[in-house]
Amino acid sequence: MIAQLHRVALRLAHRLRHRWRRWRGTPLEGVTMIACDLQERVLLVRHSYGPEGWFLPGGGIRRGEVPLQAAVRELREETGCTAEGVQLLGAFEDEVSGSPHTAYIVTCLTADEPRPDRREVVEARFFPTHSLPEPLSPRTKARLAFWRERVNDPGAQGAVD
Predict the structure, then answer these.
(1) Looking at the DSSP assignment, which residues form a beta bridge with residue 43?
(2) Cα 23 from chain centroid?
(3) What is the CATH number of domain 2-152?
(4) Cα atoms in the 13 Å half-sphere on the side-chain side of 16
(5) In the chain, where are the structural domains located?
(6) What are phi and psi of 143, to 5 degrees?
(7) What is the pLDDT of residue 152?
(8) Could you tell me what percentage of the chain is helix, strand and coil, using 3-state DSSP and rounding each to the nearest 5?
(9) Is the dihedral of CA 12, 17, 19, 20 positive or negative?
(10) pLDDT of 59 higher than 60
(11) DSSP 6
(12) Angle at 19 (CA atoms; ends 14, 21), nearest 5 degrees
């Protein structure tokens, strides 16, 4: 019952946050964590709020936090997994709810099985990269393509628009 109330509150907060960002237009910073297990499968989550589909774990950067710290924290909060070998791959410049948004793309390994809290994240699973579930958001697809480029060409540099 408590988890259900929490999910309702998260849906409402998501809508309010969307409207607030559109009204304010304040630049935002966040992280996207691309976590793989020892079998090289990628971790995806389904949220209890927002659009339907599978997403990469991530979220906002808190005041005084650097992107790597935020990515490790978000992975732990959303999935219960511990990050190892954390690396910053680059950044995306896009728009979220009408506000400019910088998304830092971070990658890591984890030996943990995901344990979502069933409030914010209702499901978290590893998937082989050749067999990802649908629907995937366009942002998730773009970030995974960016990651694949960097994995295949470690010398690649720079941000993506």
Answers:
(1) 126
(2) 24
(3) 3.90.79.10
(4) 6
(5) 2-152
(6) -70, -35
(7) 76
(8) 30, 35, 35
(9) positive
(10) yes
(11) H
(12) 95
Q: Kindly report the pTM of this predicted structure.
A: 0.80
pLDDT of residue 100: 85
Q: Which tokens belong to 16?
A: 């309010």
Instruction: Report the C-alpha gap between 76 and 116 in whole angstroms.
Output: 9
- Encoding tokens for residue 151? 């994995």
Largest CA distance in the chain: 50
In sequence order, which residues have a C-beta less than 8 Å from that of residue 157 and are 6 or more positions away?
A: 90
Q: CA 72, CA 140: separation in Å to the nearest integer?
A: 18
From the CA atom positions of the chain, what is the Rg in Å? Answer: 15
pLDDT for 74 beyond 80 = yes
CA nearest to 42, candidates 151, 106, 132: 132
CA separation for the pair 95, 126 (Å, rounded): 28
For position 143, what pLDDT does the model report?
94
Pairing of strands 99-109, 84-96: antiparallel
Token duo for residue 138: 């366009």
Query: What distance, in Å, lies between the first and last C-alpha atoms of the chain?
Result: 42
Cβ atoms 134, 145 nearer than 8 A: no
pLDDT greater than 90 at residue 56: yes
